Amino acid sequence: MQSTKLIALDWGTTSLRAYRIGANGMAQEKRALPWGIMNLPPIGPGSDLRSGFDLALAEACGDWIEAAPQAAVIAAGMVGSAQGWKEARYLELPQTITDIGQQLTSVSHARGTLHIVPGLLQRGALPNVIRGEETQVVGALSELGQNEDVLIGLPGTHSKWVRVQDRRIVHFDTFMTGEVYAVLRRHTILGRTMLPTDHGDDASFERGARVAMSEQGQAGVLSTIFSSRTLGLTGELDGAAQPEYLSGLLIGHEIAALAATRRTTGLDPAPRIILIGDDQLCERYRKVLALHAMTTVNIAVAATERGLWQIASQAGLLP
What we know:
Layout: E1 6-11, E2 16-21, E3 27-33, H1 49-67, E4 72-76, E5 91-92, E6 95-96, E7 105-109, E8 112-116, E9 120-122, E10 128-130, H2 133-140, E11 150-154, E12 159-165, E13 168-175, H3 177-187, H4 202-213, H5 221-224, H6 227-233, H7 241-264, E14 273-275, H8 279-291, E15 297-299, H9 303-314
Parallel strand pairs: 1-4, 4-8, 5-9, 11-14, 14-15
Antiparallel strand pairs: 1-2, 2-3, 6-13, 7-8, 9-10, 11-12, 12-13
């Protein structure tokens, strides 16, 4: 345990991931627990809500903290939201990635101090926020050159696309693609004819993505999603193919909107892209990006722990 230099937490809404990080900045040990901020371990009657956070922290890494008291403890994600342990204020864009660690929020716990990473706020007619993804962006950029411009995609429940120029986060967009997909499958008539499957259907997935690119797709996602049912009714898609088609359709609309925005704002239509997230989901996005001639795509590895390490270093928390 003396080799432990940092104890880092990715603390979201539904889950808590803990990393014990050594001198090389990489995780020596990892743990995953279901104690997200909306699902804390049960506490006794009359206890303060903060006791639930303290208990979750103890279960995740209390033994690490006791065995390695020299290691700082840092966390990113919804633990710093208004519903979290202590609110870490948003930093406004543009934001230099090397400055994020200068503005951490601290909260005391039973074994010491927890340092919380701030989220980012983009003001405008339609404000936008990220909390947790900023740390992954820092991790993904840790090995890039100083002046490289890059577009970072974080597919998921709420997909984020983050534009970085000269190591400054200058803009990001949010697409609720994953959540909409789940809602359409579970709570609308579209899901009535869909069947679960344990294997992918590349042809149906690509068909959906191409519809989003087509003339019909220009009418928008609200116009095209019903086709996942009608193609089933006409016998063109069986029940197992329909969810694949819907996935391709929704991701296709996301990437089509992203590409259109870049064209209308005069940005490079084929930027260097880094994807962060589940490997299979990133591969789906890679396929759709290729349909739009966006082929310079890399998958970031260990972005969360790398980012927490970098931010802790910026804050002077590393020995």
